[in-house]
Amino acid sequence: MNSDPSIDSPFRSEPGARDAAPQFVLPLVVRIERGAPPARTDALETSARAVLVILGDERSAGDGEWAQAMRDWQDARIRKVVRRARGAEWRRAEGLPGITVTGKSAEVRVFPPVPLDGWPRELAKLQVSGTDLDDPEPPVDADASAPVLWLNPELDMSAGKAMAQTGHAAQLAWWELSDEERAAWRDAGFPLSVRTAEPRRWRELTSAGLPLVRDAGFTEIAPGSCTVVADHPALR
């Protein structure tokens, strides 16, 4: 989708028409309790599902209460910021309008988009940097019959950065699906896996015409870096 530089992609590093629009950000908050952090891969998968859940929510469509904010956000740069919370911070975050998505060990709450400089007070004070997690055990092989979000093996991203990138990839896949394919994915509970590709497999994926995230380079990695490929069976 966004591998063609002539396309005004929401993830391109070069200035484009989207930069002239008011800028919004999609907040995601991951629950990281002291002594009981979620597994990294589960957090990445849960954040990607959280993005899909809010995209597919009836409040985000038509005349829904979040629809205008979602449209404004998608008309500009597609920014997602992941922050972390625990204890009372998490309880305060849960009190704001949004959706909590639960994985095997992870909890991620996604909120309707807010202006880039207009975060709610309860979220603005949450930490944004240094969010990193580990996998206690290596993830099992991905189910090839379900969507797989493949991470670039050559990039070293914090868990927070990678959560935002997998959310981008899930969103690109969502945009390319038909209404029927979206409904089927939603009705199934948005199954997906996140895995790091082997170098040779990564080269194949990036030339297969699948949705590819090229990061704008606001944090951590160089502008234009290819971060994630969304390998959805309906798009192969």
UniProtKB/TrEMBL annotation:
Superkingdom field: Bacteria
Instruction: Please indicate if the UniProt record lists Hydrolase as a keyword.
Output: yes
Annotated keywords:
Hydrolase
Question: What does the record give as the reaction this protein catalyses?
Answer: an N-acyl-L-alpha-aminoacyl-tRNA + H2O = an N-acyl-L-amino acid + a tRNA + H(+)
Q: Which Gene3D superfamilies match?
A: Bit1 (3.40.1490.10)
Q: Name one Pfam family in it.
A: PTH2
Spell out the InterPro entries in the cross-references. Answer: Pep_tRNA_hydro_II_dom_sf, PTH2
Q: Which residues form the signal peptide?
A: none
Q: What is its EC number?
A: 3.1.1.29
Top EC class of this enzyme = hydrolase
Gene Ontology molecular function, alphabetical:
peptidyl-tRNA hydrolase activity
Ranges that cross the membrane: none
Question: What name goes with this protein?
Answer: peptidyl-tRNA hydrolase
- What is the species listed in this Swiss-Prot or TrEMBL entry? Streptomyces ferrugineus
